[in-house]
Amino acid sequence: MQEDHVSMGWSAARKLRRSVDGLQRVLAVELLTATRAIDMRGGEASPGTGAAIAAIREVAEGPGRDRYLSPEIEATVELVSSGAILRSVERVVGKLR
């Protein structure tokens, strides 16, 4: 008549951490790709989008010659994980919820 209580919290927290890390990487690649697409189309970006593009352009070049993109992706991942892109956009458009 005893129950075995096993905490699954530790393994669940580790899995969540891996998921969050993966999400940050996916968001960074999507932002970098969208920035390049906007640059190549040559269109006018909204103020918030322009702020995000400006933040990314500080660490990643625009379209151009073929090159190894891993350093630019890693720098953009750092911008996402540190919240720098969000802060840049919020300075222009106000607090996002």
From TrEMBL:
Gene3D superfamilies: Fumarase/aspartase (Central domain). The keyword Oxidoreductase does not apply. This is Histidine ammonia-lyase. The keyword Translocase does not apply. Pfam families: Lyase_aromatic. Keywords: Lyase. GO terms for molecular function: ammonia-lyase activity. InterPro entries: Aromatic_Lyase, L-Aspartase-like.
